[in-house]
Amino acid sequence: MKTVAAIAPVLALAAALTVAAPAFAADLTVAFPSAAPQGRIMVAVFNSEANYGGEGQPAQVAMLDVAAGQTSITFDGLPDGDYAVRAFHDLNSDGKMNTNPFGMPVEPFAFSNNAVGNMGPASWERAKFAAAGAATQSIDLK
Has this prediction a pTM greater than 0.85? Predict the structure, then answer.
């Protein structure tokens, strides 16, 4: 009987933590249907405006081997919330986004919502989307 009394507080704490746990999205699928069949696509998923703006790290990252036919990725278990995606198509598989002498990208790139930037990346406000349950972003690389 003393054993039950001893673990009762532990069970109560476990129940409280279970109730307080955040809800998770089933998945976030990011697809690139118009990708050329060469190289790799580098994908970064951001969960805040500050991180998206360069002050922090992405929530998730992935590399798609487009040459092998991989044109989509699913990120499982993301907490419900707002997200934005940045991606670029590394056509020559050198691991970086190549630019011209003026710093302009020479490899295709894109943002969630197919948002367009003005003299730089698309803003968080244009690129963000809500992820709750299953969410899909179909992105055209340009």
Answer: no
